[in-house]
Amino acid sequence: MINYCSKVLQELDDKILDLEIELTSPIQLAETAVTLVLDYLRDVKEFVLKRSFENAEEEIYFFKKLKPSILSKLIYYNSVYKIEMKKPYGGDRIIKTYLNQELTKLKRFFDNNLEFYKYYRTNSTYLDNLYFVRGKFDIKLSLDTYYFESDQNFSTTHDYKVAKIIAYDLIQVYLEDQLFNIKKYSPTKDKAINKSNLNWTASKSALIELIYALHSQAVFENGNTDIKSIAKAFERAFNVDLGDIYHTFLELRNRKTNRTKFIDALLDGLIKKMDEQE
User: Fold this and answer.
1) What is the model's pTM?
2) Residue ranges per domain, the chain?
């Protein structure tokens, strides 16, 4: 059961990463990703309902870790779709106000669920038998209405809340990155940027992988430069818009295999070239 679900999650992560590389429109990406996640979630639900968990520990692990990891992607991309569709037309000030309002909504969620947020983020387990085992609920545990409307054969009282925490963390990164881009591409700054003749033609995820590798080795300003500044310099140097670098890095980090695919390819290619020229 766990092996199957973990394999499905890895496969879904890989497909979403491919979509993020291929689709530049956030609305088109979100719409496609939602459909994809729904298909995977449907398959996992069918598999789980046909088979029983071996024990309570396996059930808790599924509803605390695996299902929220999939469901959070649905919440995230659906939220991104709504954010982009509702984004107002106008100048930077109007859009910044809108994005900050969305951030305030996220803060309100975390404030309203602070007790459970602390429980989950500290990897606590003493209430797992109540939170992540089916058929157990206590109205005093601040249950979402979603729980009562959901299929309780495939839901516990708090698996959806975990999924929202994961998704909202990513949405916060998305919104903050949007605000940073407004500042980065302001007209006064654009005038000072000299266009480069070099164009990055590999995947965006490959460049992001390289940027994070360089940042980890503190090669710029003795490690005193933040990742956004490095990414901005690479975007200017190679005429590329890297988009949400934090989210792409999270997807790379969550890969079970080939997390450093581009770096590994660089190493192999360099060694091969050295060997050929000996």
Assistant:
1) 0.69
2) 2-187, 193-276
